[in-house]
Amino acid sequence: MFFSLKNWYKIVIFVPLLFLLGGAKSSVGSNSRNLFLEGNISLTLDKGIWKLRKEQPDYQEITLDLICHQGKCESEIWGFAPDFNKDVDHQGTVTVTKTDNAWQLEVDLQIQSHPENPELIPATYSIEIATYRDRFIGSYQGEYQGRTLIGKVTGNKSDLQLRPLPKHQPIKAREHPRLIFRAAELPTLKEKAQTRHGKKIINNLKQTLQTEVYYDGYVPTGGYHAAGHCFVSLLEDDPQAAETAWQMVEKSMANPGERFLEHSPIVAGVALAYDLCYYQWDEKRQQQVTEWLALQTFKLIEGDSPKNGWNSFAWSNWNARARGAAGLAALAILGEPAEYYPQTEFFQEPENVEKLLKIAERNVTRYFERAIGDRGLGTEGDHYTTEPWRLTILPFLQAYRNVKGMDIAPSKTQWFLPHYITRSVPIDNELAIPSYGRHRLSPPPSLYGIGLPLVSEKFLPGVLWFLERYGPETENRSLGVSEDLPISAIYGLQGYPQNPQIKNPAKLWDKVLVDRQKGFYSFRNQWRDETDIVANIYVKQELLRASWAFPDAGSFRIAGLGHQWAIAGKSQARPKHENIVVTAQSDHQGAKPIYFQSSEDGSGTVTLKKENWLRSFAVDYSEASDTPGLFALVDRFEVSENADLQPKIWKMHVTGEVAIKDDSFTITSPSGATMQGTFISPQGVQLTYVTSAEGNKIQAEGTNDFFVVMTIQQDSPPPITVEGNGLNAKVIIGKQIIRFNGSNIVLENSRIP
């Protein structure tokens, strides 16, 4: 028998699979009796698609996403090939059949080569997969544009499931409002508005609506202000408020954002106003805004040119802003009369809005998978994470719950507010976060108001405690309501329970927050008052490029006792602006955690490894050192015996008054609290305090390893005793003994295991 090259390649691919699955004695073979398809399944086909580059076929991988329930899969399947085109999702159908120890999938996919080209080119794939060590493996054969495609398949089940909400009632035709709350909830909201908290929220809403409205800038607020006026119109049956909202919506639609970054909040705000004012406006206005929202949804899904700053990588804040706004707009106009939609080739069928919604949902889900860690840390830093969340992502998630009856990525979204509550400390009567990323800003109160309806029942009492205790109650903001985003009042009123249960967050989640996906560790001593202390370190375990993926691995922050001690430097993507050791080889490569332990009091130790550099960071809140907070840091470098020792600069950016004496520094805050740091290694360290336009920092220069111990206290620091030298030294402060065992810092009298 003779075999074609194509069939021979297929045999080569399948033989390892058959070997793995073949015998009953094989581990995979025994597992095959428990094969199942459940949840969101992603299968990546190696060299599953191609396009011409320089007149030669360039083969790229394509990922196919399908949804299965108890082994039965939905007929719809979607493809995504970021190297082929980042701005296109390809729709198709799939049939799945089960054999003795594998599954066979027949896929018909419609490939769109470019977002501006509506032509669809068919691709077909025959796939066979099985499970192996909690993953899917297999092979495929396909056809696309006259070429036969053959290769391997790998896959996994996503943890980001769509979770159905119990007792959800489908929306009715032209039911509005629907995005923030359902129409049937309006009577309850009117009752809430008469409670003590409700009156405070509504009073603050009305005050914020009198502040300046922006129709340009990075965050145009015209649509959000219009939504606030629409809500007042609903609560108080005030037609003039709806008319004021219409004028703002008209002006917003007439002033599109220069780029998608600015245009996205315009679309989101107009969608919210449209939904709330729908029946306060006549049919002409309804149709005008429906048509506009449909066109903007299509544009935001389609993407833009990188020349305009557009970044459609899944983890980009641009993608999050735009696709969150597109999804919100699609949910707003879903099910409107056909004549309300624009008369374009794409909108010939009303179900095309469903297609745009699905693509928006897929982009937002990919954003969660890549940009947001398992405990809420954002890859691009705090400002570039919280901005899309409060402007478009949180509104989209809430609207999706109301309209579709589904939670998107609840395993991650439930941690977003607890994450920031764990990292926040009161500084000068304001909440501050020792921040990461570009722009060293703490999240505005509106983040908490808009996120309140999405908080899980488990964490809600702790979030309410935080809002009651720390939520600034000035004229313009209270309980998460702030003048920067008036819609936060609507979400705050909707999400605040009528019979609130309030508990200290320490009773609901740990004082130590660990985001293992991103490699972020935060240690907190308590939730109480100005004596709260927070320290964190970013290992930067997951390295993503084409975004603001900094700071450098191992940068740390310390804040507490009403002061920020170790902060970030200038807002630029340079290692010298982080709290690390700068060498000639400093870069932005990621690191890996190799050790971690913590205790219930919030103390802990983390060690990370990066090439020839090891950093161990320890936090002690046990008060064995006679201080409320002790911090130790070791930087060990591996060098060959005959290598020249290059100069190294240990950096910590600081605020406050700094005094240097020999191998120690003292920082004094305006309140009189102090931080004292002592360098155990290197001997003869050159310690300096540098002030510049880029920020103030303490620098320690040496050619070898660094070992520093720091304490913060309300008054004079305790005495320190050092026995031995270098990394072998034993440091004694009060009853606490600190040493380095060669791989990590050990605190002998702490509660860390």
UniProtKB/TrEMBL annotation:
Gene3D superfamilies: 2.70.98.70, Chondroitin AC/alginate lyase (1.50.10.100). This is Heparinase II/III-like protein. It comes from Hyella patelloides LEGE 07179.
